[in-house]
Amino acid sequence: MKPVPPVRHLVRARDLADRRYFEPLAVADLARAAGLSEAHFSREFKRAFGETPHQYLLTRRLERAATLLRTTDRSVAEICLQVGLTSVGSFTTSFGRAFGQSPTAYRAAFPPAAHLARVPACMVRAYGRPAARAATQQV
After folding, report:
1. Mean pLDDT, the chain, as a whole number?
2. Domain map of the chain by residue range?
3. Of 4, 58, 59, 60, which is closest to residue 36 (Cα–Cα)?
4. What pTM did the predictor assign?
5. What CATH number was assigned to the domain covering residues 6-116?
């Protein structure tokens, strides 16, 4: 039987971070998923993916927060907590570093989430049909 390449264990930890980014994950949890010590895991993760596990997890959380800012009307504090961060001040600072603007300014650059509300197909069909009298009129 062929041994599993070490990078595969790192991918397992990265997948865990992608799946459970909203939970209070620590580097120790990710290292445990990879079956490595924290120090060795951190070095190998950075070598394989170009950033530390902590940076990767923070980036994942900020990407999800940006999506929520664009597509929902939830408050910045709610979004901060929903993506697994605990301090709104730290969230705002990290978001500003990553996206070049505050979460509020980022949200303002996009149309309100209410514009993204989907109209049920039955309503589109009902109001998109010609009026009943138009079909029965003689020309």
Report:
1. 85
2. 6-116
3. 4
4. 0.75
5. 1.10.10.60
